[in-house]
C-alpha cells in the first residue's frame, strides 16, 4: 500500500508539471514564456522521484527486532558442574540490531562467559559451568526505539553431600530401626531420596535395602538370626548418589529369641484301686512226677502282696513250690507233684485298698 501511494503521488506531480508546461490555450510568445517558466519544475522532477523511491526501498528492507527462543530453553536449562554451556539464540532485525546479554540483571563476567553476535543469531558460551553460573540470563535485541527480550533460566547442579549422621535406634527380633539427618549440601537442586544399604559382618558385602526413600528414618526387616549388620545411607539427586555415606557406629546383633514353652495344667489322675483278678486260676489234672504251673492275672494299685495257699494253708517257705509275680502275672510251680499234692489252691492279692482271691482244684494221678 505504501508503494502504490508513493507511485500515485509521483504520477500526480508529473501530470501537474506537464499541464503547467503544455496548456491547451497557449499561443505565441505567451506559450514560450510559460515553457521557459516550467523548465525548472521539469528539472526538479527526477530528484523528487528518487527520494520517493529511496524511502520506499528503506521501508521494504527494514524489519522490527524479534527473538526466536528454542523450545528446550523455555524451561529451566539444567547442566552439571564441569559441563559446557553453548546456547544459540536466533533473532531478526534490519539493519543489524544491537544485542546485549545480562546475568541476574548485571553485566556478564567476561572471564567466564563468552558471547558472539552474528547477523541473525547470538551465541552464549561457558566452557566449564560452575554453580555460580546459575541464574537468569536475558538477551535484549534493540533496533532504534524498538526492542525484543528473551529470558533463559540456567541451573548448574552437582552430586549432593552425604547425610550428616546415621544412628541405630533399636533392634528387636529380625528388625532394626535407623535414623539419619539430611545432608548440608543438596547439590543446588532438590533431593530425589535416600538409598539405604546393609552389610553382614561375616561377608562385608553391601546390599541395597531401600532406594529413593524420602523419610529420614526406616525399619530394615528380614535380617538373618545369628548375624551382625552395619548400615549406611546415601543421598541422591539428579546427578546421582553422594560420593560417601555415613556408617552406623554400632552393629545390629540379631539374636535367637529364647523359646518359652507354656504347658497346660495337668490334673493328676488317681489310679489307685483294690486288687482285681483279670484272669482266674483254672482247674487242672496232672501226672505224678511232672512239674505243673498254676497261672493267674491280677490288677491293683499300689502293687499288691501275693499269697499262695493250699487247702487254706500258706505255702510260703515250702521248697516244693516256687511262686513268681511280674507285671501282674502270678504263677505257682509245683515241682514233681505226688498224689498228696492234690487239693484246692488259692491265690490271694492284698494292698491298702482291699484284697481279692481266686481258687482252683488240682488232681494228681
From TrEMBL:
Membrane-spanning parts: none
Range of residues in the leader sequence: none
Keywords assigned by UniProt, alphabetized: Cytoplasm, Disulfide bond, Immunoglobulin domain, Methylation, Phosphoprotein, Repeat
Annotated stretches, region: Disordered: 1-43
Gene Ontology annotations for the cellular component aspect, listed alphabetically: myofilament; sarcomere
Keyword Acetylation: no
PROSITE patterns tied to this protein: FN3 (PS50853), IG_LIKE (PS50835)
Fibronectin type-III domain residues: 162-257
The keyword Cytoplasm belongs to this UniProt entry's keyword annotation: yes
CDD domains: FN3 (cd00063)
Domain Ig-like: 65-153, 275-359
Superkingdom as given in the UniProt entry: Eukaryota
Biased composition (Polar residues): 1-16, 31-43
Gene3D superfamilies: Immunoglobulins
Cellular localisation: Cytoplasm, Myofibril, Sarcomere
Physiological role: Myosin-binding protein which plays a role in cardiac function. Seems to regulate conduction in the atria and ventricular conduction systems.
Similarity section: Belongs to the immunoglobulin superfamily. MyBP family.
This protein's name: Myosin-binding protein H-like
Amino acid at each position: 500500500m505504501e508503494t502504490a501511494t508513493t507511485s500515485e503521488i509521483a504520477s500526480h506531480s508529473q501530470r501537474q508539471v506537464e499541464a503547467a508546461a503544455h496548456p491547451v490555450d497557449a499561443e505565441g510568445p505567451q506559450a514560450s514564456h510559460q515553457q521557459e517558466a516550467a523548465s525548472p519544475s521539469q528539472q526538479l522532477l527526477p530528484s523528487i522521484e528518487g527520494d520517493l523511491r529511496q524511502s520506499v526501498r528503506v521501508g521494504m528492507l527494514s524489519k522490527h527486532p524479534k527473538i526466536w527462543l528454542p523450545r528446550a530453553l523455555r524451561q529451566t536449562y539444567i547442566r552439571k558442574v564441569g559441563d559446557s554451556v553453548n546456547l544459540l539464540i536466533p533473532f531478526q532485525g534490519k539493519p543489524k540490531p544491537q544485542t546485549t546479554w545480562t546475568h541476574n540483571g548485571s553485566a556478564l563476567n567476561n572471564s567466564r562467559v563468552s558471547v558472539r553476535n552474528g547477523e541473525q543469531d547470538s551465541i552464549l558460551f561457558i566452557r566449564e559451568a560452575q554453580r555460580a553460573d546459575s541464574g537468569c540470563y536475558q538477551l535484549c535485541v534493540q533496533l532504534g526505539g524498538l526492542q525484543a527480550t528473551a529470558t533463559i533460566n540456567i541451573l548448574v547442579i552437582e552430586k549432593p553431600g552425604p547425610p550428616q549422621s546415621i544412628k541405630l535406634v533399636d533392634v528387636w527380633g529380625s528388625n532394626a530401626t535407623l535414623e539419619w539427618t539430611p545432608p548440608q549440601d543438596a547439590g543446588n537442586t532438590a533431593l530425589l531420596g535416600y538409598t539405604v544399604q546393609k552389610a553382614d559382618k561375616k561377608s562385608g558385602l553391601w546390599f541395597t535395602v531401600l532406594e529413593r526413600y524420602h523419610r529420614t528414618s526406616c525399619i530394615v526387616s528380614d535380617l538373618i538370626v545369628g548375624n551382625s549388620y552395619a548400615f549406611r545411607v546415601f543421598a541422591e539427586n539428579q546427578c546421582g548418589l553422594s560420593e560417601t555415606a555415613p556408617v552406623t557406629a554400632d552393629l545390629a546383633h540379631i539374636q535367637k529369641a529364647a523359646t518359652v514353652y507354656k504347658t497346660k495344667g495337668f490334673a493328676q489322675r488317681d489310679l489307685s484301686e483294690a486288687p482285681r483278678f483279670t484272669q482266674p486260676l483254672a482247674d487242672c489234672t496232672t501226672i505224678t512226677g511232672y512239674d505243673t504251673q498254676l497261672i493267674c492275672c491280677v490288677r491293683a494299685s499300689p502293687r499288691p502282696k501275693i499269697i499262695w495257699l493250699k487247702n487254706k494253708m500258706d505255702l510260703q517257705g515250702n521248697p516244693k513250690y516256687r511262686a513268681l509275680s511280674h507285671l501282674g502275672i502270678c504263677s505257682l510251680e509245683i515241682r514233681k507233684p505226688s498224689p498228696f499234692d492234690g487239693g484246692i489252691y488259692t491265690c490271694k492279692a492284698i494292698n491298702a485298698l482291699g484284697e481279692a482271691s481266686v481258687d482252683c482244684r488240682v488232681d494228681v494221678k
